[in-house]
């Protein structure tokens, strides 16, 4: 054994601890490297938001160290932002998150905060995350977000909030947009006068919204040149025990009485049998069996009987049994008179 080895290993418990620490550090990539992978997003700009709007961002945390990660604490440099950890412990290979909530009810103007994440396992380090944004004082959402809770797939649900504005006499909402096709926002002015305006914003979750949790934004467009776009948070959870694919059936243009074919795939969490498939104004034919299984592939024959003109109808699937399930798909078509001929 070399002189260095003798002096190190022969020094007792203190030397052994030092060796273990050296090996622990050597098994983890350099700090700049592993924290960049563990915190792939380190900054977020909330943009311009309204007073009392629910404004949050979740920083992802990925434990790539090969050992359990323990976050001792998170400090914030400003009361304008409240940090919340999903968990202080993240197992090797696991994921967590740090939720940064912008405190829009109590702060105004341009604000920013540095969130210091203190990690003491597997090695001590501090990671800095930053958020900033502008909370405009002349515009208030009440409530601060549209939260749907649980939404049954196949059923349209609507939620609303109000916008209160105080300032310019000519200020107005000119448009409301969503970046998901199954979120339908609308607005209407309720009051106006003496430099004040009140609007109601309504958001509909369409019947064909995909299953699962969603958290999105609706953008309120105003005629304010300096800060025209204001986000409104929209969230919910679309659930179903029976899924239908495709969720939307577009048949295009067809003649009254013309028959078209459509394949459906029905999936359940438990085996089931199909009781009926119906659509108002349409004749629906399919080969039904009493077989119970988790997946059914159904070949439909669809023919408009009383349906005329532009159509947007619910195709309703019902299962057999004491605990019958119902699912819906949306059927769209333009049913023309007999003289119109179009290819399917």
From TrEMBL:
It holds the Pfam family DUF1573. Residues 1-32 form the signal peptide. The keyword NAD does not apply. It comes from the Bacteria. Keywords: Signal. InterPro entries: DUF1573, Ig-like_fold. This is DUF1573 domain-containing protein.
């Amino acid at each position: 054994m070399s002189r260095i080895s003798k002096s190190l290993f022969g020094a007792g418990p203190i030397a052994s601890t030092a060796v273990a620490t050296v090996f622990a550090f050597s098994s983890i990539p350099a700090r700049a490297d592993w924290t960049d992978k563990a915190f792939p997003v380190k900054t977020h700009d909330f943009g311009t938001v309204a007073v009392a709007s629910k404004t949050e961002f979740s920083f992802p945390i990925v434990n790539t160290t090969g050992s359990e990660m323990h976050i001792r604490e998170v400090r914030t440099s400003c009361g304008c932002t409240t940090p919340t950890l999903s968990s202080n412990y993240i197992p090797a290979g696991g994921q967590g998150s740090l939720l940064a909530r912008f405190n829009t009810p109590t702060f105004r103007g341009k604000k920013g905060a540095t969130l210091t994440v203190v990690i003491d396992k597997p090695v001590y380090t501090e990671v800095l995350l930053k958020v900033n944004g502008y909370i405009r004082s002349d515009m208030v959402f009440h409530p601060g977000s549209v939260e749907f809770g649980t939404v049954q797939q196949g059923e349209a649900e609507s939620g609303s909030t109000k916008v209160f504005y105080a300032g310019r006499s000519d200020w107005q909402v000119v448009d409301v947009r969503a970046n998901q096709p199954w979120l339908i926002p609308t607005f209407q002015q309720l009051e106006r006068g003496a430099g004040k305006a009140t609007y109601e914003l309504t958001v509909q979750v369409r019947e064909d919204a995909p299953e699962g949790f969603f958290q999105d934004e609706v953008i309120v467009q105003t005629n304010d040149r300096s800060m025209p776009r204001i986000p409104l948070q929209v969230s919910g959870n679309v659930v179903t025990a029976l899924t239908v694919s495709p969720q939307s059936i577009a048949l295009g243009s067809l003649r009254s009485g013309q028959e078209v074919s459509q394949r459906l795939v029905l999936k359940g969490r438990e085996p089931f049998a199909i009781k009926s498939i119906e659509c108002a104004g349409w004749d629906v034919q399919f080969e039904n069996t009493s077989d119970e299984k988790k997946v059914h592939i159904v070949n439909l024959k669809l023919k408009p009987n009383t349906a005329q003109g532009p159509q947007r109808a619910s195709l309703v699937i019902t299962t057999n049994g004491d605990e019958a399930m119902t699912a819906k798909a949306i059927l769209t078509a333009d049913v023309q008179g007999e003289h119109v001929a179009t290819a399917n």
